[in-house]
Amino acid sequence: MLVSTLGDGDSFSTFVVRTGQMYHVESGAVYHIENVGDGEAEIIAALRSDRPQHFSLQDSVSAMSDAVLGNTYDLPSSAFAAFDRQHSSQIVHRDGPARIPDTAGLPNARLFDMEGQHAPLSYEWGQARLARKQFWAALDDLSMYELEIGGNGMREPHWHPVTGELGYVQSGHARMTVLDPDGSLDTYELHPGEAYFVPRAYPHHIEALGDEGIRFLIFFDQPTPGDVGYRATASAFSREVLSAAFKVPERDLPAFPFTPVDPLIVARANPRDPVVG
Residue 206 burial by CB count (10 A; 0-12/13-18/19+): exposed, middle or buried? Predict the structure, then answer.
């Protein structure tokens, strides 16, 4: 894809985005996305608002009269008589071949090579690549994780204290379980092309249901989502407290491993729970 964007202070950039890469457009910028490849392109987009507002270039120009446009561009008003004043569509047809500027392949601060990143978290049973401000300075209020969990791995049960979680399944077959505040459980299966949402601070976990594992993208509305995991939770409190909380004699408590930092992805040593339904 060719992305061109004009932001505050007339800051302009144009660059090519390839499979496995990410781009960022700041709020209020005018931008253009164009397929410059031979095949169909698919973009997974995350917006910070659940009700994003959209102004197209055609709609913005059409809102002004021919006289106003003529004054703006030092042209007679008749120069705009042929403009289509109908409401625009978000995807339009291009006549002729795409034109890619010679500079479009240069490094750009709005471009992030997600697939090229050496995974900051890597285990035998899975890995996580992280697109967040720590690694990509362009992100101020968004972040994204790409998680790969093998058939012998599992995303540790956890919750995010300050953000909801929006996920998109790229490949694989998995099961998600979410705990609601009323104590009820939502358990459902995930397949390629499906999306899910977990509200802020709701405990949840995910595991692959096939030996091929699962790969999915997770979007957050915070620069760093933050995690509270079950493993570290069991290490944070004394066994007396855990005994009282679980209503189990202290002698019968499991030998919880000391975990000062949650591992994010854990090995699945036990059989999967049966799939119900």
Answer: buried
Q: What is the mean pLDDT of residues 119-136?
A: 94
Judged by average pLDDT, the poorest of 60-64, 155-159, 189-193 is 60-64
136-141 long-range contacts, CB within 8 A, separation 24+ = 136/22, 136/24, 136/112, 137/109, 138/24, 138/26, 138/109, 138/110, 138/112, 139/24, 139/223, 140/223, 141/48, 141/221, 141/222, 141/223
**What token pair was written down for 185?**
């459980």
Q: What is the dihedral of CA 27, 118, 163, 18, to 10 degrees?
A: 40
111 DSSP β-pair partners? 23
Q: Which two tokens stand for residue 143?
A: 């972040």
Write out the two tokens for 132: 């967040």
**91 CB-near residues (< 8 Å, 6+ apart):** none
32 pLDDT higher than 80: yes
